[in-house]
Amino acid sequence: MATTQSKPSTALGTAGSLSGRRLLAYTALFYAVAVAAHTFDHYRRGLDTLTTEVHVTGIVGTVASAIAVALALFRNRYAAPVAVAVGFASALGIAFVHLLPVRSAFSDPFPGSTVDSLSWAVVLLEIAGALAFGAAALYALRGQSMFRAPTDDE
Length: 154
Description:
α1 (about 20-45) packs antiparallel against α4. The protein starts with 8 loop residues before the first strand and ends in a 13-residue tail after the last helix. The protein has one domain (about 20-145). The protein has a two-stranded antiparallel sheet with strand order 1-2. By secondary structure, the protein is an all-alpha fold. The chain has helices spanning about 20-45, 50-75, 80-100, 115-140, and strands spanning about 10, 15. The protein is elongated, with a radius of gyration of 19 Å.
């Protein structure tokens, strides 16, 4: 008869692992700091440099990010799916607005502009934070039934 040994528990969950919800909470905090830094950078550079379209899109994205972060920190059952959507959409949207050349009123391109290294750093930090948030949410979802392979009982 085979015996199974469980790994000892730690503050982060089972030894050697990080629970999906805890990882999602940590990345939510990282992402929230990055969103705040990017927002403050826009105020530092002056909001007059933005088109109305970029400004409104940024406000909507910031509100969506705040909701997703709050859901993750309060361990709401919808936190992971919302974080997947908001995290990956935000990363793509920020890259679209800031890293590609001018193509519409939804552009605030950094390449070829006079923005400083701080602005570049906070935009890249927010993109990284959004990607990490989305990836952590996918990791958290791995244990939920819609992403788990069916067992013999199902």
